Amino acid sequence: MTPLVLASTSPRRQQLLAEAGISCEVYRPREVDETPLLGELPEPLVTRLAEAKARSVAIDFPDRLVLGADTIVYHDGEILNKPADLAEAEAMLRRLSGQTHRVCTGVSLLRLHPALHHLWAATSSVTFHQLSDETIAAAMQLTNPLDKAGGYAIQEQEALLVARTCGYRTTIIGLPVEDVLAQLRLWQEQGCI
């Protein structure tokens, strides 16, 4: 199979694809306004953004399969984006302490010519331990919280922060690679790719 075009510069997504044996070429998507629409729920939001990112790259590679993705963390009906500063990151971890939140990743697999498209969202839940001040400080030292939705990265901070998860761990990291593999296999069986 021709390598996927990954419409993301996320090293985590690149690593997940590589570990799954999926080769890809990385391209930065054009700027996409990630502001939620009025009343937009998490799954429609991440699928809309994943598709916009995939389409922004697919116009340059119309005959290639492009993968776009977007991940959000949400808790009590509020989206927790990447924190603006360390104080906001700490506040997010305090808010999530002892609580269960959800992580939703939207995925778009898109080829313009001949047309092929599959768009979906995967959601997993994460329950944090009750976090002490010391644990929060240690977690913030372990990885940069400013480039992570919700202010944490499960692959680096799981032992410190996480009591349990439900759903694909890869969804929490940023790409439900199990679903991607299943869709690619289906298209291969059907002769689409």
Give a quick summary of the entry.
The chain has helices at 11-19, 42-58, 86-96, 133-142, 154-161, 169-173, 177-189, and strands at 4-6, 24-26, 66-75, 78-80, 100-111, 116-128, 162-166. It is of the alpha/beta class and 193 residues long.
Written overview of the protein:
By secondary structure, this protein is of the alpha/beta class. The model has no long low-confidence stretch (mean pLDDT 96). Helix 4 (133-142) runs antiparallel to helix 5 (154-161). Strand 1 (4-6), helix 1 and strand 2 (24-26) form a beta-alpha-beta unit. The longest helix has 17 residues, at 42-58. It starts with a strand and ends with a helix. It contains 7 helices and 7 strands; from the N terminus they run βαβαββαββααβαα. Strands 1, 2, 3, 4, 5, 6 and 7 form a 7-stranded mixed beta sheet that branches. The protein has helices spanning 11-19, 42-58, 86-96, 133-142, 154-161, 169-173, 177-189; strands spanning 4-6, 24-26, 66-75, 78-80, 100-111, 116-128, 162-166.
